[in-house]
């Protein structure tokens, strides 16, 4: 099994980042995104569990809710954005509610609608954990992507350029 502490220079560049294969550029780009996402998720799971004591899927829900300027999101919208079945989402929301991280309320004028929002506790925990979580994302992306891909993503992840220089 590969050592997780390998230096990115020791790793071959992701094959999807290179041209010359059978795939058109769009599919190569998609494969690179999948590889990058997988690398980030793999390393992020442990940090999320340690810092927030939630599953990766529950963390994604918290992230969606954290990006809402005011209030929360309807559960149907959360399920839609995450591509999750509503029944699974209901269970995850219940776990987050039990942990004191989200609140649920009926949507005014719609007896079936339920809106979910972050609690102050969740906001505090996300604020405290954001540094190590962001660093995990940056290091994971820097490890899997070549220089051209890092440059293309640097507008979205500004510290990615710095991380590649540190390698």
Automatic annotation (TrEMBL):
Q: State the source organism's domain of life.
A: Bacteria
Could you tell me which SUPFAM superfamilies the record lists for this protein? Winged helix' DNA-binding domain
Which SMART domains does the entry mention?
A: HTH_MARR (SM00347)
User: Which InterPro entries does this chain map to?
Assistant: HTH_MarR-typ, MarR/SlyA-like, WH-like_DNA-bd_sf, WH_DNA-bd_sf
Annotated transmembrane regions: none
Start and end residues of each HTH marR-type domain = 26-162
Q: What is this protein called?
A: HTH marR-type domain-containing protein
